[in-house]
Amino acid sequence: MKQSLLGMTPDELKRVVTEAGLKPFVAKQIAHWLYVKGVATIDEMSNLPKTARELLNKNYEVGRQQPISAVTSVDGTRKYLFATTHGTVETVYIPEDDRHTLCVSSQVGCKMNCQFCMTGKQGWSGHLTATEILNQIYSVDESKLLTNIVFMGMGEPFDNTDNVLRTIEAMTADWGAAWSPKRITVSTVGIVPGMVRFLKESKCHLAISLHNPIATERGEIMPIQKAFPLERILSAVKEFDFAHQRRLSFEYIVFEGINDTQRHATQLVQLLKRLPCRVNLIRWHAIPGMDMHSPSEIKMVQFRDYLNNNGITCTIRRSRGEDIAAACGLLKSENEA
What we know:
The chain is α/β, with parallel strands linked by helices. It has 12 helices and 14 strands.
């Protein structure tokens, strides 16, 4: 079975070319073809001699796979289905004015079992490799348009920290795609070890899935609260600088009568008042078997305004792609319930 080049670091590429009997500088050429040009095959690396391409083709491939299918929402959102080693994953392209965001997956399914998430309901099948994560970025039709990447698709990124960080390095390093870290946001339910490692090893933005500021109530809908309590999560992020270029945000799916009361708003202000951060309110998108409802627009606005009036920057995230099950919490693998 051939090894994939996509996802390799310069040192790994140097080993590849050395073993193939090629000059070390060829590794830099390959990296440019992979991460800047975004080629799908070794034969497209036209400044490599034909003999070099033939040598590489014996044991290696780029590692790109075209999506199995794609469907487009009435609002322009586009959802792709990709095959991976452990099953299929969904990836969502979200266009908005001059912003082109890709929501990528990091796992097939998810272990976190958040009660409001379709991905969590299907269980976990496996980690995506860096090749499989990068393939989502390079193989969507809109790849050349992308301005932002968010790790908010299927899976918990910090349950697959090695491959997520390897992907980020390839996208932000000078030897790779050379993106600004400010163009990438990683979302987590709060797995502290992986989160801290990410904050130390990258300069990308962090989004934390909060959903309830009251610990006991959060634990009822998010089992991770038991292993990594809110107090520990917040204590960890307070060790890092979010007052300048790096942004810290908290995701807050709003459920009618569950986490949308004045009590919750007040507690949320108390919890976050000393953190330079923002809160993104997200409408609940119904999934089968869950008796939850999204509050009225008036209630959403009142909650947002209370936070803003009390020193917490808060916005209501526009819902995108709900008609094709591409909105927050709706992603799943093919044929999964």
